[in-house]
Amino acid sequence: MLRMGKLTDYGIVLMSYLAESTAVHHNAHTLSEAVRVPLPTVRKVLKALSQYGLLDSERGAHGGYSLSKTPRDISIAEVITAIEGPIALTECVSTESHCEQEVHCVVQTNWERINSAVYHALDEVKLSDMLVEQTHVNGVSTIHFYSSVKQSEIVIKQDGGIHG
User: Fold this and answer.
1) 125 with 143: CB under 8 angstroms?
2) N or C, where is the chain less crowded by C-beta within 10 Å?
3) Annotated domain spans of the chain
């Protein structure tokens, strides 16, 4: 099962909450109460997001945390990477690979392609997308991707043939 950790989930929740009111600085205690996540966990997540550069923090009576960029400029891939580290679906696509099979693996290139596709899909979903209520069709909500791939470059395989 492919699943991100709870800290990453909390990070996306916190970032989404901060994205709703970008003009205000929020302290850890207020954020903890607002998103109903324990204060020590909120502090840990805020620290990771700040160290990665996604949050600005200011000390003082009017200080707190705020987004370092607009919600439209922060991708979900960045939030995941800030907390989990680089996105790697298998050992061989990790920067710290220790796989004994790597030198003669016949599927490594395909895993790299799959990992890249997952990363790019997550990179296309912006924090601002997480704020918009999506239209539900048959119980499934839609997220619209704004692909950097030109429509003319898309090739569709259909019935064994290539169309596009």
Assistant:
1) yes
2) N
3) 6-135
